[in-house]
């Protein structure tokens, strides 16, 4: 596994959680 892939996944997850927070 590459570090870049992991960072990208975390960034996507962070954005997803922020969007979820706005919806609630």
Secondary structure: elements and pairs:
Elements: H1 3-23
Report what the structure shows:
Pfam families: GapR_DNA-bd. One of its GO terms (molecular function) is DNA binding. It comes from Bradyrhizobium uaiense. Residues 2-21 form the GapR-like DNA-binding domain. 88% of the residues lie in helices and 0% in strands. It has 24 residues and is mainly α. The protein is rod-shaped. It starts with a helix and ends with a helix.
What key attributes describe this structure?
mainly alpha; 24 residues
Short description:
Pfam families: GapR_DNA-bd. The protein is mostly helical and 24 residues long. Helix content is 88%, strand content 0%.
Number of helices: 1
Shape: rod-shaped
Distance between the termini: 34 Å
Task: Please state the CA-atom Rg, rounded to the nearest Å.
Answer: 11 Å
User: Which structural category do the helix and sheet elements fall into?
Assistant: mainly alpha
Pick out the low-confidence regions.
none
Strand content: under 5%
Portion of residues within helices? over 70%
* Major sheet details: none
Number of strands: 0
pLDDT averaged over residues: 89
SSE run: H
């Amino acid at each position: 596994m590459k570090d870049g892939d992991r960072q990208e996944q975390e960034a996507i997850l962070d954005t997803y959680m922020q969007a979820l927070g706005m919806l609630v």
